[in-house]
From TrEMBL:
Keywords: Chlorophyll biosynthesis, Chloroplast, NADP, Oxidoreductase, Photosynthesis, Plastid, Transit peptide. GO terms for molecular function: protochlorophyllide reductase activity. It is found in: Plastid, Chloroplast. Belongs to the short-chain dehydrogenases/reductases (SDR) family. POR subfamily. This is NADPH-protochlorophyllide oxidoreductase. Its EC number is 1.3.1.33. Pathway: Porphyrin-containing compound metabolism; chlorophyll biosynthesis.
């Protein structure tokens, strides 16, 4: 039986109920809070709606310029309509969750996966050893720690003539043992710069392509995490995520004339990662508010489970890497294998039933998906708008 998360806690450490809920009727026993007794989040509430930027939807049918890409449907011999292969970009597909997702999607034969990675050779080897069918993937270079590289990737992708049906923002770095901040090419603290700002620019620039796609369900997925949500036990392990008033972000996270941390505080690598995940989850919701109704694109985030064996923990001390997997497997029961997590994310990409936009998906112990609730900060519409506006300036979109 899964250990109740609350039983791990002294009472002074209990988790306040906060935030807006999803509409799940299922509860997780691991997260230390009951999800079903919260009010349903109303993302469509007019009070939350932001000014729309895209009033005109680009025509539903995309003019195909490349012969290699068949149109959305074609007649099968017996006259039944079959869907063309979906085209999905997955960032950070060279290892862990991204690789497992690429594999799960490519194996169905229904998807062509563009593995958007910073290390071409590593990705090629990973794809081969995972047995991903050759005809179902393409590797394209993307270094999210450089905005020039993001722009170059977008140009290359557009030139390839492939449609974009789903974009998965999955890549991340986690630097829990760093004493001093390190920086992206533009001088942003590396974790927020890569995990949030790189993906923010990438998804803004590729939104147009998602809009143009004639695929029936177009989706933008940004991977979130439980550790950014302070309405959970995991999110209360110090240091806790907190974006504060965004003064550090507004100052450019450069550690010179501004702090390297979003909230303006002293550098803490673990907190910077958790803050970046809050930005990821806020960005997804802001996309939803700004673009879902007009474009029909589905925006989603998720917590895939604790995949304790991935490369994410490569910078952690060896003792942590040794104890973390058994701790998650036998104590919290939050552990999930890379394969299983890959199937979960693949579901968010392609499952015809997961078409609700603005949702943060999680899975219960029977591996059934449910709409989870985000913490108060991770569902704060005003903060989402501010993060969006400040980020726009930092990446040169405003
Ligand atoms: C910060 O530390 C770091 O400072 C920062 O650099 C970054 O890494 C960040 O979030 C990442 O963490 C936070 C610190 C304080 O976290 C810890 O988790 C330290 C571990 C404390 C436990 C030490 C026990 C060591 C003995 C191991 C023996 C157990 C074997 C387990 C595996 C067996 C499998 C069969 O965090 C806190 O303040 C914690 C507050 C929460 C209190 C909850 C207490 C419940 C403890 C019950 C579980 C104990 C198992 C520990 C396993 C540790 C693996 C992570
Ligand atoms: P991995 O370290 O295995 O994968 C991270 C991927 O991101 C790698 O492919 C890595 O490339 C890539 N990456 C890192 N920096 C850059 C960059 N500058 N440009 C391009 N790609 C980059 O970790 P996970 O699979 O665990 O993480 C995947 C996602 O899952 C992350 O968003 C993480 O926050 C999330 N997540 C993970 C959980 C877990 O328990 N592991 C739990 C909850 C969420 P390279 O191979 O070249 O290093
Ligand atoms: Mg956590 C139910 C409890 C639960 C879950 C699901 C996670 C997930 N963690 C839980 C509990 C605890 N963790 C407890 C009680 C502790 C104190 C012993 C604890 C500690 C801990 C550390 C030190 N946990 C961690 C770390 C990390 O360095 C990881 C991290 O915070 O990365 C930012 C981590 C994680 N715990 C998780 C998950 C999913 C992580 C990986 C973080 C992520 O990908 O977002």
């Amino acid at each position: 039986m899964a250990l109740q998360a609350t039983s791990l806690l002294p009472s002074a450490f209990s988790i306040p109920k906060e935030g807006k809920s999803g509409s799940s009727s299922k509860d997780s026993t691991l997260f230390g809070v009951s999800f079903s007794d919260h009010l349903k989040a109303d993302f469509n509430s007019s009070g939350l709606r932001c000014k729309r930027e895209f009033n005109q939807r680009v025509g539903a049918v995309r003019a195909q310029t490349v012969t290699a890409t068949p149109s959305v449907t074609r007649s099968a011999p017996e006259g039944k309509k079959t869907l063309r292969k979906g085209s999905v970009v997955v960032t950070g597909a060279s290892s862990g969750l991204g690789l497992a997702t690429a594999k799960a999607l490519a194996e169905t034969g229904k998807w062509h996966v563009i593995m958007a990675c910073r290390d071409f050779l590593k990705t090629e080897r990973a794809a081969k050893s995972a047995g991903i069918p050759k005809e179902n993937y393409t590797i394209m270079h993307l270094d999210l720690a450089s905005l020039d590289s993001v722009r170059q990737f977008v140009d290359n992708f557009k030139q390839s003539g492939r449609p974009l049906d789903v974009l998965v923002c999955n890549a991340a770095v986690y630097l829990p043992t760093a004493k001093e901040p390190t920086f992206t090419a533009e001088g942003f603290e590396l974790s927020v710069g890569t995990n949030h700002l790189g993906h923010f620019l990438l998804s803004r620039l590729l939104l147009e392509d998602l809009q143009k796609s004639d695929y029936p369900s177009r989706r933008l997925i940004i991977v979130g995490s439980i550790t950014g949500n302070t309405n959970t036990l995991a999110g209360n392990v110090p240091p806790k995520a907190n974006l504060g008033d965004l003064r550090g972000l507004a100052g450019g996270l450069n550690g010179l004339n501004s702090s390297a941390m979003i909230d303006g505080g002293g550098f803490d690598g673990a907190k910077a990662y958790k803050d970046s995940k809050v930005c990821n989850m806020l960005t997804m919701q802001e996309f939803h508010r700004r673009f879902h109704e007009d474009t029909g694109i589905v925006f989603a985030s998720l917590y895939p489970g604790c995949i304790a064996t991935t490369g994410l923990f490569r910078e952690h001390i060896p003792l942590f890497r040794l104890l973390f997997p058994p701790f998650q497997k036998y104590i919290t029961k939050g552990y999930v294998s890379e394969d299983e997590a890959g199937k979960r994310l693949a579901q968010v990409v392609s499952d015809p039933s997961l078409t609700k936009s603005g949702v943060y998906w999680s899975w219960n112990k029977d591996s059934a998906s449910f709409e989870n609730q985000l913490s108060q900060e991770a569902s704060d519409a005003e903060k989402a708008r501010k993060v969006w506006e400040v980020s726009e300036k930092l990446v040169g979109l405003a």
